Amino acid sequence: MAGSARRPEHRGPPELFYDEAEARKYTQNSRVVEIQAQMSERAVELLGLPEDRPCLLLDVGCGSGLSGDHISDEGHYWIGMDISPAMLDVAVEREVEGDLLLADMGHGIPFRPGTFDGCISISAVQWLCNADKKSHSPPKRLYRFFSTLYAALARGSRAVLQLYPENSEQLELITAQAMRAGFTGGVVVDYPNSSKAKKFFLCLFVGASGTLPKGLGTECAGEETHQAKFTNERTRFRNVKGKSVKKSRDWILEKKERRRRQGKEVRADTKYTGRKRRPRF
Length: 281
Description:
Blueprint: H1 14-17, H2 20-28, H3 30-47, E1 56-60, H4 66-73, E2 77-82, H5 85-93, E3 99-102, E4 116-122, H6 138-152, E5 153-163, H7 168-180, E6 184-190, E7 199-205, H8 223-226, E8 227-230, H9 249-261
Parallel strand pairs: 1-2, 1-4, 2-3, 4-5
Antiparallel strand pairs: 5-7, 6-7, 6-8
Helix pairs in contact: 2-5, 3-4, 6-7
């Protein structure tokens, strides 16, 4: 699990931590932008969205709209909610394509039942585990979030929440409240043996249970260790073979074909498609 030495949620409430200076630094840092793009791409992939039509997605903790940029690039529509006014101001300045809402996810998801075809969240849910006010109860705020999120999602859809759990107890608290709210699913861990690349994705199903996706980089390790599963039904999940390796030729061809089906202009496939270029000196 991630260490607690420099965790942002330990420095203060998110609406105060992400002030104007921090919001701009967060958005202008090329390393942060790259990591956000990678995690957003993975989260949308785990949603398993239909490829023949655009979907409406909810982005919880959308910040300055970095994750929403990828949603737009994939041809989908989105609504983002965040508790930081400074982050949303930067998103407005960036002219993101999604609609924006200032809201505390601990107060619940303020949308009608069945509004969204899916939900993603990048590095936000762990903030609910902190009690920044005397009235805050982490279990109650988590349950309020998950129960209203469950209602706002269409049946058969998914929510994929990338998070940085502080420890196993915190991860258990989060998953327990999600299960209590009616979700099934589990935790998908990408690159479990890497201290830097390791990422946790809480993959939740609404209504009928689905198959828990396989984590990246788990081919040479025990899968049971890297995919924590839970369910409130009798159905048990089975691992399936993952998709093409990211950035490989097959992966690029599949992505180009998806974009063609969405009506986007895509360059023709050639023998050079997916070939790595030699570094320039």
